[in-house]
Design a protein that fits this description.
Chain B: It is a multi-pass membrane protein. The complex is a heterodimer of chains A (about 280) and B (about 260). Chain A has about 280 residues and is an all-alpha fold. Chain A folds into two domains: about 1-35; about 50-280, Orthogonal Bundle (MetI-like fold). In chain A, about 80% of the residues lie in helices and about 0% in strands. In chain A, helix 4 (about 90-105) packs antiparallel against helix 8 (about 145-170) and helix 10 runs antiparallel to helix 13. The longest helix of chain A is centred in the first third of the chain and has 33 residues, at about 55-90. Chain A starts with 6 loop residues before the first helix and ends with a helix. The mean pLDDT of chain A is about 85. By secondary structure, chain B is mainly α. Chain B has one domain (about 45-260): MetI-like fold, CATH 1.10.3720. Chain B has helices spanning about 5-30, 45-55, 55-90, 95-105, 110-120, 125-140, 140-155, 155-165, 170-200, 200-205, 215-225, 225-259. Chain B is globular and about 75 Å long. Chain B starts with a helix and ends with a helix. The model of chain B has no long low-confidence stretch (mean pLDDT about 85). The chains are: A mainly alpha (about 280), B mainly alpha (about 260). At the A-B interface, helix 1, helix 3, helix 4, helix 5 and helix 6 of A face helix 1, helix 3, helix 4, helix 5 and helix 6 of B.
Chain lengths: ~280, ~260
């Protein structure tokens, strides 16, 4: 039994919960509260939400964010599903090195990442010049500042994350299962179709929802590329909130609340899926 | 055999995709002139000389260091003891911490910034302090994970029991027994948190604005002015993150080796 007298518990947790309260709960409450206020922070109204749901411009922003998050997550996860499996086929030492590299590049996001792509594919980028030199018209007309350019950048920060999240999943597939399956006469293809995939599928879907949430909340890369021109949810929130002439912080709060809700749903799906796996395996 | 080649191919695609943008920036930061030719016309270190001669850059570097360091130290001093006592003495509260972590995931920088501006802008509280507070919350998931795993690895509960039987007070036992044994594990989480914060742009840009230049804000300002200087900043930033990662890997390996 533990001794009574929780002095240490109280003394150590009070400052901790105070900071969490001040810098997580308070802003959350103020944001939710602000989203129900009229312009200028007056009264109680649903106008901001009405505006978001009626204005085609904000529909577009949500549509764009969802599309770019969906496509970048799909491409990243398909690449990662194969590459991560390949990684597990190498020695422990090489696996470690690749994971360290993934970890390292996962930190390479936001402004530096956007800039690295400008160097490669911007108007006088390295590859742009190369494609022009060889006269590859279709490639040299590729525009970094377009949606497909942004997808390339999003894939970059999704890919290492996907590899790191999927790696432990493959380690859960035990060689004994494979041996047992092959003893019973299953081919490798049959093993993956009947055993491997069903086991890892919930994890892949869970990883996908994390990637999706990650992309939905991304802001800096798109902002670095073209300022406020991309019509993404996060870019709209930033523009409505920061102090330029178009600032409408109450509307920004409403959009931020809706985005937060989207992320909560994505995270709940992941939570639900990961609980599903545990039940299956135990 | 066909199979190994496929494995090389899939890994190769991913590695190439992750490597090429990095190499491009490094090369560009050493290039004299690179507008019409495929390869740079010459190599130079003058962009780095210029960068490190720019007091604006050095100041921004200092600001980034101060911001990231103070948030990391704050979490070492406040978060680690809190997580320690919750894990050991109030395990029921771990659910609460996990809910807080889910909340931080559901409120990335851009959303948190909206709330923080509404709550604190114009209230007289320094927005720089607010940003550090937000950083504290932002690194909670990494610090929690690291601290909890370290505590589990050293069997903190039996250590505490032993120390208390030998007559140490709980506080002394924590300071003299627990802290030294979890130090290396905590250090890894702290370095990870530090490197994440060092690359943070959204909160500091929205909360404090352009008047308070950190490295990321400086980089953003330089993007449209000088590509070479900007890529020198990117290269330096990446080297710093690489060094921090190397230290983390070494610390983790040492820990694994000693067990």
């Amino acid at each position: 039994m533990r001794k009574r007298g929780n002095g240490l518990l109280i003394a150590s947790t009070i400052p901790f919960f105070l900071l969490v309260f001040l810098f997580l709960i308070v802003p959350l409450v103020f944001m939710i509260f602000g989203s129900f206020q009229g312009n200028g922070g007056i009264g109680f109204t649903f106008d901001q939400y009405k505006e978001v749901f009626q204005n085609a411009y904000y529909h577009q922003a949500f549509k764009n964010s969802i599309l770019i998050s969906f496509f970048s997550s799909i491409i990243a996860i398909v690449l990662a599903v194969f590459a991560t499996y390949s990684i597990t086929q190498f020695s422990k030492k090489i696996q470690d090195r690749i994971l360290v590299f993934a970890n390292l590049t996962s930190n390479f996001a936001g402004i530096p990442l956007a800039f690295a792509f400008i160097v490669l594919l911007g108007n006088s980028g390295l590859f742009t010049l190369l494609f022009k030199h060889f006269g590859w018209e279709t490639l040299s007309s590729f525009h970094l500042y377009s949606w497909s350019g942004l997808v390339l950048i999003y894939i970059y920060f999704q890919l290492p994350l996907a590899v790191m999240l999927l790696f432990p999943v493959y380690q859960g597939i035990q060689t004994q299962w494979k041996e047992a399956a092959s003893l019973l006469g299953a081919t490798t293809f049959q093993f993956w179709l009947r055993i491997g995939l069903p086991v890892i599928m919930p994890s892949i879907a869970g990883t996908f929802s994390i990637l999706f949430a990650n992309a939905m909340g991304a802001y800096a890369s798109a902002y670095a590329l073209t300022g406020s021109t991309y019509n993404l949810v996060t870019i709209r929130i930033g523009a409505l909130t920061s102090g330029d002439i178009f600032a409408k912080p109450e509307l920004g709060s409403a959009i931020a609340c809706l985005l937060g809700l989207t992320l909560v749903v994505a995270l709940l799906i992941n939570e639900w899926l990961s609980r599903k796996i545990r039940r299956d395996l135990s | 055999m066909k199979k190994p080649f496929l494995h090389y191919l899939t890994i190769g695609i991913v590695l190439l995709y992750l490597l090429v943008p990095l190499l491009g920036s490094f090369l560009y930061s050493f290039a004299t002139n690179w507008h019409k030719t495929i390869l740079p016309e010459g190599l130079t270190i003058k962009w780095y000389m210029e960068l490190f001669g720019d007091s604006r850059f050095l100041l921004s570097l200092g600001r980034s260091l101060i911001m990231s360091l103070s948030a990391t130290l704050l979490s070492l001093v406040i978060m680690v003891p809190a997580i320690f006592s919750i894990v050991l003495y109030a395990p029921k509260w771990e659910k609460l911490i996990q809910s807080i972590i889910v909340m931080t995931y559901a409120m990335p920088g851009i959303i948190l910034a909206v709330g923080l501006i509404r709550a604190y802008a114009g209230s007289g509280v320094s927005m720089i302090l607010v940003t550090i507070g937000a950083y504290f919350v932002g690194i909670l998931p990494y610090m929690y994970q690291g601290t909890r795993n370290s505590l589990r690895n050293i069997h903190a509960d039996s250590l505490m029991e032993a120390a208390e039987i030998l007559g140490a007070s709980r506080f002394i036992a924590f300071l003299k027994v627990i802290v030294p044994s979890i130090m290396s594990g905590i250090l890894v989480s702290a370095l990870l948190s530090f490197s994440i914060l060092f690359g943070e742009f959204v909160l500091v840009n929205l909360l404090v604005g352009g008047s308070f230049e950190t490295v990321q804000v400086y980089l953003y300002q330089k993007l449209n002015q000088s590509g070479h200087i900007a890529s020198a900043v990117v290269a330096c930033y990446f080297v710093l993150v690489a060094i921090l990662t190397a230290i983390m890997v070494k610390a983790t390996r040492k820990k694994e080796g000693s067990v």
